[in-house]
Amino acid sequence: MLTTPNPLEGTVIDARPTTADRVRQVGVTLAEVACVFGTLVGTGVIGRRVAESSGGSLSSAATHIAPAGPAFSIWSMIYLGLFAYTVWQWLPGQAAAPRHRAVGRLVAASMLLNAGWLLVTQVDWIAFSVLVIVAMLAVLVAAVARLLRHPASGNVDAVITDGTLGAYLGWVCVATCANVAAALAAYRVRPGAPVADALAVVVVAVAALVGVALTRWVGAMSTAARWSIGLAVAWGLAWIAVGRTSGDPRSIPTAVAAGLGTLAVLTATATAGRRTARGRADADTDAHA
């Protein structure tokens, strides 16, 4: 088998890409182009900004679960990471890498779903947008699961691939909760303050628990994925807390719950890797006893 060193990592990788590899690379690239177009639509360069669609139901002041406006700047980092991944998978030695074969099509699917979400919100199909973002979330979970079975070839690969998909997954977890709340608001499901506060606290708690569960799931298998997931979820929760204390609708219970959720996710992120590594060390000790 013909192999060659990866020029950036020094890892020996099968150097003979197949036709399927080339098709996958082209598919990822076309999906990136679609994602860029969707971004231009969603940011108002073409069409309306997302916050202006669906009667303002997706704005930062629409529901108790909506993060404050600056939270959405995380998309810039995610989009930059997706662009970097698109370029990375074309570099010599990467085309036939097992992890790109495992996740490339899922990355492409996530970008197409991302573009699709931005387009359906433009036409005020907010109920359908919930289905799209749930599908995106499922695709990203599957992508990260496959990454964990195919370790990164080095630090550059870990940052570009694991870091990007981890942040993408973590943020979409929070965004899914916000999207569901926005859809309910669009259909005039607006309970009074005490009920709205209680429901928001429950949803925030669930989002935090999901963030904790994801970081424990990834554990020490991918430090880049674990931290990017944890930080993205914590980022979203922290900006929910900011939104509920600095703008309408104000909700101290929601803000407190979001603040506590942020701390819980960050703590879990910091300890999950050590816990997993310790468990493996104990298992190795028992096996050799």
General description of the model:
This is Tryptophan-rich sensory protein. A two-stranded antiparallel sheet has the order 1-2. The chain has one domain (16-288). The chain is globular, with a radius of gyration of 20 Å. The chain contains 8 helices and 2 strands. It is mainly α and 289 residues long.
Termini Cα gap: 40 Å
Element order, helices and strands?
EEHHHHHHHH
Broad structural category: mainly alpha
Strand order, sheet with most strands? 1-2
User: How much of the residues is beta strand, in percent?
Assistant: under 5%
- Number of helix segments? 8
Radius of gyration: 20 Å
Transmembrane segments: 72-91, 103-120, 126-148, 168-187, 199-217, 224-242, 254-272
Organism: Mobilicoccus pelagius NBRC 104925
Keywords: Membrane, Transmembrane, Transmembrane helix
InterPro entries: TspO/MBR-related_sf
List the helices and strands and how they pair.
Layout: E1 3-5, E2 12-14, H1 19-42, H2 74-88, H3 98-122, H4 126-149, H5 155-186, H6 193-218, H7 223-246, H8 252-288
Helix pairs in contact: 1-2, 1-3, 2-5, 3-4, 4-5, 5-6, 5-7, 6-7, 6-8, 7-8
Compact summary:
With 289 residues, the protein is mainly alpha-helical. It has helices at residues 19-42, 74-88, 98-122, 126-149, 155-186, 193-218, 223-246, 252-288, and strands at 3-5, 12-14.
